[in-house]
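Retry 2 of 3 after timeout on previous attempt. Resubmitting structure tokens to design endpoint.
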């Protein structure tokens, strides 16, 4: 029975991460051009959700043990499924409200051009026009895999640290 409770908490956490990160992206890029690196500030959403969901999972257990591996699996599943949901939400949102996605692409191009102008000569791209054209041709479905990669990266950093904190013997 404890496994089913844990699964419900994991899925609820993944849903919160997915909706939260998609909302962060949408509201960040909806109205203006800002550096695309700001996307990585959504790290706080999975961190807070994983911490609170692991507290709930740990508290729901009747045994007096909560192993590192249990929290590692639960936290990783939350982040991975949350990344998938976030990407799917953004992809679907871009089909009827493309402004945030278009602003994200335009921001990427703008700041790439600015970094090329101000960067050292040995770091400049030789194929900048091709890269810019590739960015312009990017489809919203790109966000599915991109969000997954970002959340997998978060899970490799955040979840082991949080799991070490919440384990008990």
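Retry 2 succeeded. Sequence:
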């Amino acid at each position: 029975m404890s496994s089913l409770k844990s699964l419900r908490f994991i899925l609820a956490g993944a849903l919160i991460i997915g909706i939260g990160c998609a909302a962060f992206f949408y509201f960040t890029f909806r109205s203006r051009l800002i550096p695309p690196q700001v996307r990585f500030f959504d790290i706080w959403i999975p961190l807070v959700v994983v911490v609170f969901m692991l507290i709930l999972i740990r508290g729901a257990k009747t045994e007096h043990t909560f192993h590192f591996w249990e929290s590692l699996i639960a936290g990783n599943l939350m982040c991975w499924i949350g990344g998938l949901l976030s990407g799917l939400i953004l992809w679907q949102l871009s089909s009827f409200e493309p402004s945030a996605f278009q602003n994200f692409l335009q921001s990427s191009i703008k700041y790439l051009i600015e970094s090329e102008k101000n960067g050292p000569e040995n770091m400049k791209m030789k194929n900048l026009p091709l890269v810019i054209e590739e960015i312009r041709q990017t489809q919203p479905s790109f966000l599915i895999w991109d969000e997954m990669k970002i959340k997998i990266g978060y899970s490799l950093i955040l979840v082991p640290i949080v799991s070490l904190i919440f384990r008990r013997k």
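Attempt log closed. Helices lie at 2-29, 44-60, 68-96, 99-118, 128-136, 142-166.
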